[in-house]
Amino acid sequence: MVEVYINVYFTLGKQNRGMSVVNAYQHLAGRPLTHIEIDQSFVLGWCIEWLQAFFLVADDIMDNSSMRRGKPCWYKQEHVGSIAINDSFLIESCIYLILKKHFRHHPQYINIVELFHEITFHTEIGQTLDLITSSSAKVRYELFNFARYSAIVKYKTAYYSFYLPIALALYMRGVLSSQAHYEAKTILLKMGEYFQIQDDFLDCFGDSSIIGKVGTDIEEGKCSWLAVKAMEIMTEEQTRSFKANYGLNDVESVRMIKEVYVDLGIPKLFKDYETSSYNELCLMIETRCNSLPKQLFFDFLNKIYGRSR
Q1: Whole-prediction pTM
Q2: Would residue 101 show up in a list of annotated catalytic residues for this protein?
Q3: What is the reported pLDDT for 291?
């Protein structure tokens, strides 16, 4: 079953997280990589892709999602159903079998394995925060604030999507300095938040044929950037309409929520945020990155700026 999942879904992803390991290793080396270094980078990159697959299979079940990368979610496939839960466990286990096979004699093996465990734990904390903050069954509007939102996206997205690839490259280059890892983490967690806010916007206003999934944040009552921003600026009448329709799996309710977003100027506020956040990140890279190549972070940032998927 896992082999079928790999053949169906892995080739449809952008694989940006995995390729980021290779690109980061290249920047840190400052020279062409050897064949062995390239192979090791690819292995670690694929381990990140396996980690994401584990998260996505489980997340789709918990969110009751319908589409993933332009196809029905794995648990929606014929003859899969709840077996997908165990499949997600198998996918996670494969990560450590791969690491053992290729890195058990590498001097950074323990650091690499511990990093994967740490990042998995952080991501599961983020998923927990997300699930207890909102669901279609009970939307907890009292928790819809930017402090809670930032915590969710930092733990659920930023650690594994942004910090993990660069931290792996640092270990592979033998960079163990706590200062270097702190600089990378500070910049990359901020970048991860920016990325997730883009994701939230695309979930509502993006083209599903381009992003490869049907957005369901509104139906699921998610604590998204759009919802939190709306809660800050809505009138009492708009708030009543919002709460009456948010979290309902109903076409008319979704339409009304999107209409409220448009009336509030959320698309324009997002574009303003995107520009200001990009400028802030550029400044962070220039002023806080002292022990690592700045271009490493600029390349990462420029890949996601203004994205449509």
Answers
A1: 0.91
A2: no
A3: 93
